[in-house]
Amino acid sequence: MNAFSLGVIEGFYGRPWTVDQRHRLFAQMREWDMNTYLYAPKEDLKHRHHWRDPYAGLEASDLSALIRDAHDQGVNFVYALAPGLDIVHSSEADRVALLAKLSSVAKLGARHFALLFDDIPPQMHADDMQRYAGLGEAQADVTNLAAAHLEPESTLLFCPTEYCARRAEPNVAQSPYLRALGQLLEPSIGFLWTGPEVVSPEISLHSIRELAAVIGRKPVLWDNLHANDYAPRRVHLGPYDRDPELRAEVAGILSNPNTPFEVNYPSLASLADYIRGATDWTARGSVTRALSAWWPLLELPPESDVELEDLALLADALYLPHIFGDRADKLAEAARTVLKGRQTTSDIERLERDHTRLERLLRGLAGCGNRELFFELHPYLIELVDELGRLRLRAGGRATDAFEPFPNARPGSLVDQLRAP
After folding, report:
1. Structural domain tally of the chain?
2. Is 355 found in the same domain as 248?
3. Is 288 inside a domain boundary?
4. What SS3 state is found at 97?
5. Across 173-182, 189-198, 295-304, 408-417, least confident range
6. Which residues contact 275 (CB under 8 A, 6 or more apart)?
7. Most buried pick, 9, 256, 298, 391, via CB within 10 A?
8. Residue 301, CA distances (Å) to 42, 63, 385 in order
9. Once rounded to an integer, what is the mean pLDDT over residues 133-151?
10. Residue 37: inside a domain, yes or no?
């Protein structure tokens, strides 16, 4: 697995994806020429909280079947273990337990692995302090131990505790922890990194080059751009939006997307498009292509009058953590003029047109064959439709006390913008 790693991380907090969803994901990844799936659902107890315990019975057979399914689709299955909550790096018992767990998963068919030390307190156990100069030295020691234990054809990824620039102390260039890892981790071990932030709106070439100089290798990007487990009252349907030159600075890109599975098609299709992208590639062009490809998969009923533009409006309203799409920006601007009592005929027409589009999409999805997708999108759609209906009444001078806004609007959502004066 020395080639560029491209694919998906199931690495969020919350309910893991189902067997059927993963099966469809692997098939889609094959079409997108994605080669890597990293299994790291935080709520799999044997991945993190009970990491020493082997899989047995039905859990073992299910994991083995999942590994075979990925292999059959030409996807490298990477099993991730997260021992950082309570491992004592110097403990012989824990070191034996770590190797035994990796061996047990290898017997189920896994050939590629990852050790994750993210989202844990950056302190060492008292016993470790007697053996290691710091946490970087301790983690490098057990990770190198794991790498030496694996079969020659196996590969190993590593996620540090300082996994983004914000968490590096005092900074990336001067972090003793990162420098120790760069000096001590075996060169063949891949290094996962999320960018300047846990969820990075932008990732500069300079920031990646700075990190690479410290850790002695190109990082594999663990990209949380479309993640929503930290803000479950939002989902993201926008494109994979990174500098095209970033592709040459990293050893791979793995997307850790929305927790709801069905809504991830546009972002993952856009990631594949980004990797294939020519010199004239743009994020907005990419999401347009992704939505067009997604359209038939909605399984809308034959009598539906829904248009692709309706779906594009929703995607702009549920775009990325830091920005809305163009259509949603224009809608928010029209809403602000209404809230200030300064609406023009053009503003009212936009409210009416967009309200009609989203109402039509809501009706169409209510009858679609992809029921999970409908249930995932319904809360966001119904709230947008309701709020736009209120704005239309207000624009026509017909607002009443009966039309109070929802008390629990999704923070940072377009609905918030529709109410902002």
Report:
1. 2
2. no
3. no
4. helix
5. 408-417
6. 4, 6, 33, 247, 253
7. 391
8. 37, 36, 21
9. 97
10. yes
Would you say residue 404 has pLDDT above 50? no
Looking at the predicted structure, is the pLDDT value of residue 87 above 60?
yes
- Other C-beta atoms within 10 Å of 156: how many? 23
Please indicate, yes or no, whether residues 25 and 124 belong to a single structural domain of this protein.
yes
- Assess whether 239 and 328 both reside in one domain: no
For residues 312 and 258, membership in a common domain is answered with no
User: Is residue 403 scored above 60 in pLDDT?
Assistant: no
Domain housing 408: 308-419
Q: Is there a domain that residue 300 lies in?
A: no
pTM: 0.94
405 confidence band (pLDDT: 50, 70, 90): very low
Contacts 24+ apart (CB under 8 A), 203-206: 203/242, 203/243, 203/246, 204/243, 205/243, 205/245, 205/246, 205/249
In contact, 364 and 304? CB cutoff 8 Å? yes
The mean per-residue pLDDT over the stretch 234-263 comes to 96
Q: Kindly state whether residue 57 falls inside one of the protein's structural domains.
A: yes
CA distance 38 to 81: 10
Secondary structure element (H or E) that encloses residue 158, with its range: strand 155-159
- Looking up tokens 């966001």, which residue turns up? 380
Q: What is the CATH number of the domain that holds 340?
A: 1.20.58.240
Read off the tokens for 288: 């347009």
The amino acid present at 223, given as its one-letter code, is: D
Task: Give the tens place of pLDDT for each residue, 354-390.
Answer: 999 999 999 999 999 999 999 999 999 999 999 999 8
Looking at residues 265-277, what average pLDDT do you find?
95
* Active-site annotation holder among 53, 94, 119, 347: 119
Helix ranges restricted to H, 218-299: 265-276, 283-294
What is the CATH classification number for the domain harbouring 239? 3.20.20.80
- Per the DSSP assignment, residues forming a β-bridge with 39 are 10, 79
**pLDDT per residue over 178-190, tens digit each?**
999 999 999 999 9
> Catalytic residue at 69?
no
